[in-house]
Each structure stands twice: as C-alpha cells, then as structure tokens.
Amino acid sequence: MRKTSRAIGAAGSLLLLATTVAPVFGASHREAPLISTDAAADHTDVFAWVDGPVRTSTLAAEGTENRVNLAVNVSPMQDPAGGPNFWLFDPAVRYDIKIDNDRDARPDITYSFRFTTRVRNPNTFLYNTGQVTSRADADLSFFQTYDITKTKEGGSPVLIANDVYTAPINVGPRSTPNYDATAAASVKSLPYGVKAFAGQRDDPFFVDLGSIFDLGGLRPFNAFHRIPLAPAAGNDDLQANNVLTIALQVPIYHLTKGGKVYPKTDARATIGVWAANYRQSTTVINTNGTESRSGPWRQVSRMGNPLINEVVI
Q1: How far apart are CA 26 and CA 237, in angstroms?
Q2: What pLDDT, on a 0 to 100 scale, did the predictor assign at position 19?
Q3: pLDDT digits (tens, 9 = 90+) for 79-108
Q4: Within 10 A of 253 (CB to CB), how many other CB atoms are there?
Q5: Rounded to whole angstroms, how far apart are CA atoms 203 and 3?
Q6: Is 202 within 8 Å of 250 (Cβ atoms)?
Q7: Whether 277 contacts 97, CB under 8 Å
Q8: Phi then psi for 224, rounded to 5 degrees?
Q9: Domain ranges in the chain?
Q10: Distance CA 261, CA 14 (A)
Q11: How far apart are CA 73 and CA 281, in angstroms?
Q12: What's the rounded Cα separation, in Å, for the pair 26 and 307?
C-alpha cells in the first residue's frame, strides 16, 4: 500500500519526500480517537531511506558518505482547495524526529521543529493578495517559518536552523503560477551537508478507506465477504489529498554511533527512526482571546511502526 510522491530538486541534489531507491511503508490516518481531533499533531507517515549505494569511510572528514532522508507527514486528508484558511503547522506543537543508534530503543539524537506564523498583512483574511512567486513573496498575507534544534542524549538542544521559510501553499494557477519551482526553492541547505524542507505535499499513501472501514471489505474480494457485493477495483481514497511534510537530509555519519559510515553488514550501520509530537501540558484561554501555554511537554502522537492501531491492536 504505497505510491510514489513527487521529489523536490535544489542545487543539483534531491530531497525526496516519499519512496526512492528502497521502498518504505507507512501510514496511520486518523487512527486513534483522541489524536483524530488534533490534525496538526496527527502523524500519517514516517519514511527513512538512504540515497544510492553506500560508500564506507573511516573518517567523517573524508566527505564520501551518502545521506539519510528522513520525512514525517502530519495533518491528514487535506483538500487542496481548502481556502481561505489553508492548513498550517501548529506553533504550539513541537515536532520531533528521533534516532536510536545503539539499538536500545531510546533516542540518541532528536531533531525538533518549532513553527512560527507571521502576519504580513493583517487587513485581509485572504492567504495571498496577488501572485506568489517566492516563499517570501510580499503578496503572502501570512506565512510560516521554523527553527530546528538537534539534541544528543544527555546534552542540551543546539540550534541548527533559524527562521527558515516553509513552502507556500499551492493555492491555484493564478495565485501560484510556477509552484514547483517555488516549492523547490524552499529546500534549505544547512551547514555540514544537511538539508531541510517543510510544507504541504501530496499524500503518498494508497488506501481504500471507504471499503476497508465498511465492515472490513476489500473491493476485489467483495464476493467472499459475509455481506457480499459485486467485485470492483480498489479506490485510492487519499488521491489528491495533501499532508504537511517535515523532511531532513542528513549525512550518514551524523547519525551513527561512531560518527562513521559502516558497511551494511555491520550492526553499527543500523539506526532506528520514529517521530513524536508534543504539546505543553497547560493551555489557558485568556479574556482577550489569546492563549498562554506552560508546563512540561507531553507526547500527543507517536509513529514508529505504522498501522499498529488499525491492523494489530
């Protein structure tokens, strides 16, 4: 159950946002009762894959490493024509990508993303007032930026990216006439060979939700169901739906325990990847309508082994 999503190319390299060289599987869409009411924090997919054949090196400084692509999708089932209030990352959510590199199921490296919504034109409810041809276009009434911190086990967070623009929304051919190029320009190159992207993407998952949750039916096998129907081809019910994607491309040696690139037969070449989203424990709605948040961060969504809720539990 997968389909290939589009890729974004920038500066001669690719930050791919779905299946590439080796297939990866995922998806949990609105699968748990509580998180289904909190779309901005609801995970749909987690992807991790390596670009091309891995070349081993003994020193990180040699620069011969390949890169690991990490992509996390949230906020399921977005209608692309969902204006005027299009889907955004929630500034109140901390979006984490976690790496385990010593096989103890505990995070050794955590990349955290925090988003800020910035209002350029408070005098309109429209997302844009003219054609948008860049991620910082003056015709964007509001936009989002994000910061990234990297935390190693036992250490303090280190800021690795600040005020990076998200990709703008693909409003339509009048508003965003050259959207692919505009979105590609939102791939941010960071120090030490890291790249980052955040923005709306086509949902890469394929599933016939309508039939599966209609008493567990599979359309090609309708005749064998206890309530038989005529057989039919499956539907891609997520076709033309969007999600919000957070993606990182990181040199392998950034993630391994020894800071090197190991042969794939070496246990040190294996990492665990999962995602977790957090909200602070206390939210107060003030008399002027604003919100104040405080308290420790609490996990509200996690994805490591997709489809556990729907298939196993």
Answers
A1: 16
A2: 31
A3: 999 899 999 999 999 999 999 999 999 999
A4: 24
A5: 9
A6: no
A7: no
A8: -100, 0
A9: 7-203+240-312, 207-237
A10: 20
A11: 23
A12: 7
DSSP 219-245: GGGGGGSSS---------TTTT-EEEE
Amino acid at 280: Q
* Three-state DSSP string of 168-218: CCCCCCCCCCCHHHHHHCCCEECHHHCEEEEEEEECCCCCCHHHHCCCCCC
Q: For residue 70, which of 197, 186, 169 has the smallest C-alpha distance?
A: 197
Give me the residue label for tokens 């002027």: 288
Quick one: pLDDT band at residue 271, thresholds 50, 70, 90? very high
Which among 2, 9, 8, 27 has a CA at the least distance from the CA of 201?
8
> How far is 79 from 26, CA to CA, in rounded Å?
21
**Angstrom distances, CA of residue 141 to CA of 135, 138, 220:** 12, 8, 47
Tokens 């994805």 correspond to what residue? 303
Q: Give the separation between CA 140 and CA 128, rounded to whole angstroms.
A: 4
Q: What is the DSSP string of 264-313?
A: TTSGGG--EEEEEEEEEEEEEE-TTS-EEEEEEEEEEEEESSTTIIIII-
Q: pLDDT by residue (tens digit) across 106-149?
A: 999 999 999 999 999 999 999 999 999 998 899 999 999 999 99
- Work out the pLDDT band at 66, boundaries 50, 70, 90: confident
End-to-end CA distance of the chain: 19
- The residue behind tokens 């409810």 is 125
Secondary structure of the chain: what % helix, strand, coil (to 5)?
10, 35, 50
How far apart are the C-alpha atoms of 176 and 250, rounded to whole Å? 30
